[in-house]
Amino acid sequence: MTHSPWSIDVATALLEPLRAEPGPVLIALQAIQGEFGYVPSEAVALIATTYNVSRADVHGVLTFYHDLRTTPALPNEIKICVAEACQAVGSRELEKALKAAYKEEVCDAFCFGNCALGPAVMVNGKLIGRATVAKVAEGLK
Prior knowledge:
Layout (H helix, E strand, L loop, with lengths): L7 H8 L8 H13 L4 H11 L3 H10 L13 E4 L2 H5 L2 H12 L3 E4 L11 E3 L2 E3 L4 H7 L2
Parallel strand pairs: 1-2
Antiparallel strand pairs: 1-3, 3-4
């Protein structure tokens, strides 16, 4: 998915219709990330000003939600479930193998609701059950 380069005009146009939404900060952060691929630091001040909240409030929401990004995403995102059910069927060993192969693109996640088919891995938004290094590699194609 390609994203727009940061533009205050585009961001302002995204934020304006959200004024009527209750608690618009999270929705605004999601909209900014959806458009630009991440939440640039300039967006924090813009959101704060637009919705008359403090920068600290916006920053708090931004840093609370794990899926919100402050830097552009890597080409691939590999999330491996490390909750107990997946650990019981080898997710930690799989995590080590994936990190050796894909380094910074691998991050921990806690439960995709796919416990019966663990270990579970999410590759670029696609869920893989009974994941292996080979299945992840196939998911990256």
